[in-house]
């Protein structure tokens, strides 16, 4: 028997959730460049229930009349996938590098995400509108080199280049009573030069972002029986597109994406 959650289109449900919330402007959204992130994978029906539980305390980000935005990110790594391996091995000092383009306004940024103490995430970024999303300019490399050396005491790896891209839609909900927000992603598509792997259309990937990791959203989700998952869009995409070891991401990989066979080139499994 087909369940209701399998029938519902998460993108449609989330658009309805966004339409029913009071709007908030970008200037009123907490930036939270240093924060604690918790991720959850929920069905479309669970997303609708969560929105009802949050009530009027949350507003939805609106820019130029839009409440749902298209993103595309290009990730950079070494030929032997150094940053992927560091995340798979849970190295204490690790990073991810990407360009993120806001297709519905907001321009393009080069973003360097660093692991922090006690599960925190520190994000550093610079505007990148004047460069192609798949290219690291000399200015970009200087930024990466200086930040890695200053923040993690790491030297920038040789031969960083574009590995893959992810496309998705996002709705951002903002807690008006505190420094916290919830991003809600649908329609994820992971792609490289040879193929693409889509996510299931009935699931929403949530990311609760707050200064201390104790946001209201987290408490509500736990009350609904939803637990955090270990997930990284980049690492999931590498595992799915290249058939690389997924390790702790395997449960989410098999539930969320449709992996396709490919040799994991560049390092020993």
Can you describe what's shown?
The structure is a single chain. With 269 residues, the chain is α+β, with helices and mostly antiparallel strands. The protein has one domain (4-256): Hypothetical Protein Pfu-838710-001, CATH 2.40.320. Helices cover 27% and strands 33% of the residues. The protein has 8 helices and 11 strands. It has helices at 4-7, 10-19, 44-54, 82-88, 138-152, 216-223, 233-242, 250-256; strands spanning 23-24, 34-43, 58-61, 69-77, 95-102, 107-115, 120-127, 161-175, 180-191, 196-198, 203-210. An 8-stranded antiparallel barrel has the order 2-7-6-5-4-8-9-11, surrounded by 6 helices. A hairpin with a 4-residue loop joins strand 6 and strand 7. Helix 2 runs parallel beside helix 3 (44-54). The model is unreliable at 1-6 (pLDDT under 50).
How would you concisely characterize the structure shown here?
The protein is α+β, with helices and mostly antiparallel strands and 269 residues long. The protein has helices at 4-7, 10-19, 44-54, 82-88, 138-152, 216-223, 233-242, 250-256; strands at 23-24, 34-43, 58-61, 69-77, 95-102, 107-115, 120-127, 161-175, 180-191, 196-198, 203-210. It has one domain (4-256): Beta Barrel (Hypothetical Protein Pfu-838710-001), CATH 2.40.320.
Question: Which features does this protein show?
Answer:
single chain; 269 residues; alpha+beta; Hypothetical Protein Pfu-838710-001; eight-stranded antiparallel beta barrel; disordered N terminus
């Amino acid at each position: 028997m087909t369940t209701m959650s399998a029938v519902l289109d998460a993108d449609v449900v989330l658009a309805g959730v966004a339409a029913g919330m009071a709007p908030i402007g970008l200037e009123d959204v907490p930036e939270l460049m240093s924060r604690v992130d918790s991720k959850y994978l929920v069905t479309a029906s669970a997303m609708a229930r969560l929105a009802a539980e949050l009530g009027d305390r949350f507003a939805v980000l609106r820019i130029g009349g839009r409440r749902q935005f298209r993103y595309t990110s290009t990730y950079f790594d070494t030929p032997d996938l150094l940053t992927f391996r560091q995340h798979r091995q849970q190295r204490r000092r690790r990073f991810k590098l990407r360009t993120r383009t806001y297709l519905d306004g907001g321009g393009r940024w080069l973003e360097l995400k660093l692991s922090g103490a006690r599960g925190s995430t520190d994000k550093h970024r610079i505007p990148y509108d004047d460069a192609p999303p798949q290219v690291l300019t000399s200015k970009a490399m200087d930024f990466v080199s200086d930040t890695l050396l200053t923040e993690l005491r790491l030297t920038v790896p040789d031969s960083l280049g574009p590995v893959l891209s992810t496309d998705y839609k996002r709705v951002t909900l903002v807690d008006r009573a505190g420094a916290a927000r919830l991003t809600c992603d649908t329609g994820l598509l992971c792609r490289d030069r040879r193929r693409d792997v889509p996510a299931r259309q009935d699931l929403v990937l949530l990311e609760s972002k707050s200064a201390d990791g104790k946001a209201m959203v987290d408490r509500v989700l736990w009350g609904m029986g939803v637990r955090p998952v270990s997930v990284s869009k980049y690492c999931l995409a590498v595992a799915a597109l290249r058939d690389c070891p997924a390790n702790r991401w395997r449960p989410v990989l098999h539930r969320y994406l449709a992996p396709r066979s490919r040799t994991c080139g560049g390092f020993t499994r």
